[in-house]
Amino acid sequence: MAGIATPKYHNEMGVAVITVGSREFNCIGALPPFDHPHIYIDMGDETEVVCAYCSTLYRFDPGLEPAAADPPEAVYEEA
Asked: Would you say 68 and 15 are in contact if contact means Cβ atoms under 8 Å apart?
């Protein structure tokens, strides 16, 4: 992903699954100030991964744009 910022996702909404358009991203848990350490996740060849901190299940969808998510409010953009 050279030249592209690593997307960050959160699960403030408490959904069971967040579908993402990137296999490499950061999970932050909830929104600041209640976030957990921002951890880098690399799915490799897998299509699903669980965050070790918050247990959010992330599922890869190649049909989504690289920084997109479903639900879209899971995308975290720093102010």
From this structure: no
The model carries a pTM of 0.92
CATH architecture for segment(s) 8-13+20-76: Sandwich (2.60)
The tokens 């959904």 sit on which residue?
A: 15
Q: Are 49 and 40 in contact (CB under 8 A)?
A: no
Give the residue extent of every domain in the chain: 8-13+20-76
- Phi (first) and psi of residue 62, to 5 degrees: -65, -15
Report DSSP letters for 21-53, one per residue. S-SEEEEEESSTTSEEEEEEEE-TT-SEEE-TT
Asked if residues 18 and 9 have their Cβ atoms less than 8 Å apart, the reply is yes
| Mean pLDDT (10-residue bins), the chain, 79 residues | 80 98 97 96 98 97 96 93
